[in-house]
Design brief:
Blueprint lengths: L1 E9 L5 H9 L5 E4 L14 H6 L9 E2 L5 E2 L29 E3 L2 E3 L6 H14 L2 E3 L16 E2 L5 H12 L5 E2 L2 E2 L31 H6 L8 E4 L2 E8 L6 E8 L2 E12 L3 H9 L25 E8 L12 E3 L15 E4 L5 H7 L1 H4 L4 H9 L1 E8 L8 E4 L5 E4 L5 H17 L13 E5 L35 E3 L14 H19 L1
Parallel strand pairs: 1-2, 1-14, 2-11, 7-8, 14-22
Antiparallel strand pairs: 3-4, 5-6, 7-10, 9-16, 12-13, 13-14, 15-18, 15-21, 16-17, 17-18, 19-20
Helix pairs in contact: 1-11, 3-11, 7-9
């Protein structure tokens, strides 16, 4: 069967869910296709063993690395996409991130648009996703046309102590921007209860500003919006010229269905959007749809990231820990010329989360031992920019499976950031309280399967020979095809990409609305 729409949106995450919301009031007939279902609301949402050890909400997909070895990517196929389990850290890229930057291993290229071009859309995205923050604390941040819609989430006592100690030492800690539906001035009426099961967990009470809660659910009552769940798009078909997508092929309930639209927006995430285009090869597009430049799938990025558990004799009873950030080393220091990146908190650790994240190190540890470690842990996330390298790429095999070839860049920058951070923690006095009175930091680098920050693969630009999309995220080679997720990033910066994906979706949504008028 074939059904016709004005717009088809493939995916409901930060890109697709936000784009659907942006277009819903246009009155145009919109079909939203999601390969997964609603994430079930159940007690396991907040159970660390179910989430981290059993991996209950991770897709059963298997990808393959450069050597053909299979691995399970940490991707989530639900309405709301990856945002259902994200930590809701909604950062703007820094203005300098939009320009060319020299790194230890090469050049991070300039974007075809500037921070000033994105700023109004950042503000709109922050308003839509109800972001908490306190502008002006971080010297690296850009100007803003509007204040945050909600005040910064307050620090709990242990974090407030660290915040004050960092400031006294001459650093510039700031309240981390986060998207949670928390009203600290009216806690009895607040949707968010400020729990310890936020970062990495689904939210049982729908208090996280995810793309389902904010983007999709509010528009489902509109007569012009249709959401199909468990509908995996397997191929895009074009007309005889190859310039127009004429069929969106869907596998649903074991059946093949075909839908048509004036405009098709692919928002499946950097790896899966590339997969779909590559698997849509045809006589007109022998290397994959919109891939005359041979850029589809290339320039894959996902950050160099490291988690750190800083242990001390003093207990850390913090529940909601993601309130503190530090960018003092973001663009380097007097002693190190290269950018180092961002420091922020992660969700409060517990025994099961530690066991799930590092099973090879904790399988022998008794439960009471890990619980004691978690009680004393202050938990951090370090991110350094990785470079868009053409050889770091997504390809597909004859069965359509994802193969991800990736070699690290800028690891020296990550190591320098780690050492600077160690020195900072020692300087503010944490060494005086460390277990056994020694510096003790447990750390883990995020592996290839930890792809929550995936980006690149369909970069936007002005030159069709070096980019897949134009500056409106429309494919250079296909007139009615857009890619509206983190695939469009020419570089990734060193902060979480979610807010930039949301802001861009609002920007592209405005363009599409004008086009359809």
């Amino acid at each position: 069967m074939t059904e016709n729409y004005d717009v088809i949106i493939i995916g409901t995450g930060a890109g697709g869910g936000t784009l659907a919301h942006a277009l819903a009031d246009s009155g145009k007939k919109i079909l939203v296709l999601e390969r997964g279902d609603y994430l079930p609301r159940e007690l396991d949402n907040w159970d660390a063993k179910s989430v981290f050890v059993d991996g209950k909400y991770i897709s059963k997909d298997m990808w393959f690395d450069r050597d053909g070895k299979s691995f399970q990517p940490q991707v989530h196929y639900f309405v709301g996409g990856a945002t259902k389990l994200y930590g809701a850290a909604l950062y703007r890229l820094r203005p300098r991130d939009f320009g060319e930057l020299t790194h230890a291993d090469g050049i991070s290229p300039a974007w075809p648009l500037s921070y000033d071009d994105f700023e109004p859309w950042y503000s709109k995205a922050e308003q839509l996703y109800q972001v908490h923050g306190n502008g002006g604390e971080d010297p690296t941040e850009g100007h803003r046309s509007e204040p945050y819609p909600w005040p910064a989430v307050s620090h709990e006592p242990r974090l407030q102590q660290i915040y004050e100690d960092m400031a006294k030492a001459g650093n510039h800690p700031f309240h981390a921007p986060c998207g949670i539906l928390l009203d600290e001035a009216d806690r009895p009426d607040s949707t968010c209860i400020r729990c310890a099961t936020c970062d990495g967990y689904p939210c049982l009470v729908h208090a996280k500003s995810d793309a389902e809660v904010i983007g999709i659910r509010p528009i489902l009552s509109k007569p012009n919006v249709t959401l199909l769940r468990n509908a995996e798009v397997t191929k895009l078909e074009t007309d005889s010229s190859g310039r127009t997508v004429t069929g969106v092929v869907v596998s649903r309930d074991g059946n093949r269905e075909v839908y048509q639209a004036d405009i098709v927006a692919v928002c499946a995430g950097a790896a899966n959007s590339a997969k779909l285009l590559l698997n849509s090869a045809s006589d007109h597009h022998p290397n994959g749809l919109a891939n005359g430049s041979d850029q589809v799938g290339r320039n894959y990025m996902f950050h160099n990231s490291r988690t750190i558990a800083a242990l001390s004799e003093e207990e850390n009873p913090t529940r909601f820990q993601k309130t503190l950030g530090l960018n003092d080393f973001y663009f380097g220091t007097q002693d190190y010329q290269y950018p180092m990146g961002n420091i922020q908190m992660v969700g409060k650790s517990n025994a099961e989360a530690m066991r799930g994240e590092e099973p090879h190190l904790t399988w022998f540890a008794p439960e009471f031992g890990l619980n004691e470690v978690a009680k004393h842990s202050v938990d951090w996330w370090l991110s350094t920019e990785d470079l868009p390298v053409a050889e770091n790429r997504v390809t597909t095999d004859k069965d359509g499976n994802v193969h991800l070839t990736y070699s690290h860049t800028n690891l020296d920058e990550l190591d320098h950031l780690y050492r600077e951070f160690e020195k900072l923690l020692n300087h503010i006095g944490m060494a005086q309280h460390h277990v056994l009175h020694k510096n003790y930091y447990c750390h883990m680098d995020i592996p290839l399967g930890g792809c929550a920050h995936q980006a690149g693969t369909c970069r936007f630009g002005t030159d069709p020979t070096t980019s897949v999309l134009d500056t409106n995220c429309r494919a250079h080679e296909v007139d009615n095809l857009y890619v509206v997720d983190t695939s469009f990033f020419p570089s990734i910066g060193a902060v979480n990409p979610g807010l930039t994906a949301m802001a861009n979706a609002l920007r592209v949504g405005d363009h599409i609305t004008t086009r359809l008028a």
